[in-house]
Amino acid sequence: MGETYHQLSTRADPALLSLVIPAYNEEEVLPLLRAALTPFIDGLQMPVEVILINDGSTDRTLDLLLKWASDDQRIKVLALARNFGHQMAATAGLDAASGDAAVILDADLQDPLEVIPAMLERYRQGYDVVYGQRTVRQGESGLKRLTAWAFYRLMRASIHPDLPLDTGDFRLISRPCLDALAELRETHRFLRGMVAWVGFPQIGVPYSRPARAAGQTKYPLRKMLKFAWTAAISFSTLPLRLSLSIGVVIAVIGIATGVMAVIAKLANLYTAPGWASQMVIMSVLSGAILISNGILGEYVGRIFEEIKGRPLYVISRRVNLPAKSAPRDPKDA
Residues 51-78: pLDDT tens digits? Predict the structure, then answer.
């Protein structure tokens, strides 16, 4: 399938730029973020709002955010009632953003602020999504780099062919694309895939990703694997089709084994019943059934979560934001 053609139209800088930054237990890095972010937004030739989302932190992250917001009215804080996860926190920030464009970035300074002007240049050229594309990943283990490399290529090859390679959530999103994204309210979210799904002109900006400025990663291998699983089953029924294929293969093996047993009996080659071979076949067949049921159960469970219609997140406190902040209605655009 070819890439959709878009006719680009140049435009001015955003009348307001929103920076959306989720934070979970980032007490160590927030002073460094403030020291870097304040002169950066002072130097931009446009108004900027910074939406910092406290995702149920257990350390002093919220205290530092509230102090920062009291010192600078451009800093807006959303405190979630508990830890809802990075994707929900980013969604809350995007819902609250009122700018003509929004940039999602992490609080740990691994998403370099110096890349944002390059994103704005692409925005002025007419692109609605400008994603940061990692060329170097500093401060990460070889295993993490390998699993990330494999994840994106497997996703593109089998599930989401439009997913950009080697990208995270670090990206600029225009208001038209934000409005389209706001209509997608699924519970199990894979934002970078959702942004690719809605379409619009998209382009990458290469950058070197530095190591964390301070603190520990909030995405160990266990969470990465869980996130990859969510990405896979949120955008495709491929796991279900794979379980069907496994069942067909095992059924064929079972039929072939039965035919061979009959032939051996007719040729007087049949010996005492093979207990070991029967147990192996039964074990493999039972395992395949349980795996298939487990995969089916994952989909059914997610359907159950969706039909409950619960909000994606709960906000306990807003600072420098309206008392009630609901997702912007695209019809008001």
Answer: 999 999 999 999 999 999 999 999 999 9
* pLDDT value at residue 326: 47
- Are the beta carbons of 37 and 113 closer than 8 angstroms? yes
Cα 159 to Cα 155: distance, rounded to the nearest angstrom: 5
Burial of 188 (0-12, 13-18, 19+ CB in 10 A): middle
Q: Which residue pairs from 138-147 have beta carbons closer than 8 angstroms and sit at least 24 positions apart in sequence?
A: 138/208, 138/209, 138/210, 138/211, 139/210, 139/211, 139/212, 140/211, 143/221, 144/221, 144/224, 147/221, 147/224
The span from the CA of 187 to the CA of 307, in Å, is: 10
Strand partners, 276: none
Flag whether pLDDT at 329 surpasses 60: no
Q: HEC profile for 37-76?
A: HHHHHHHCCCCEEEEEEECCCCCCHHHHHHHHHHHCCCEE
- What's the whole-model pTM score? 0.70
For residue 65, the cross-strand partners are none
DSSP 120-174: HHHHHTT-SEEEEEEEEETT--HHHHHHHHHHHHHHHHHT-TTSPTTEEEEEEEE
In Å, how far from its chain's centre is CA 7?
28
Which pair of structure tokens corresponds to residue 129? 């999504």
Please state, as a whole number, how many other Cβ atoms lie within 10 Å of the Cβ of residue 163: 20
Tell me the CA end-to-end span of the chain in Å, nearest whole number.
Answer: 31
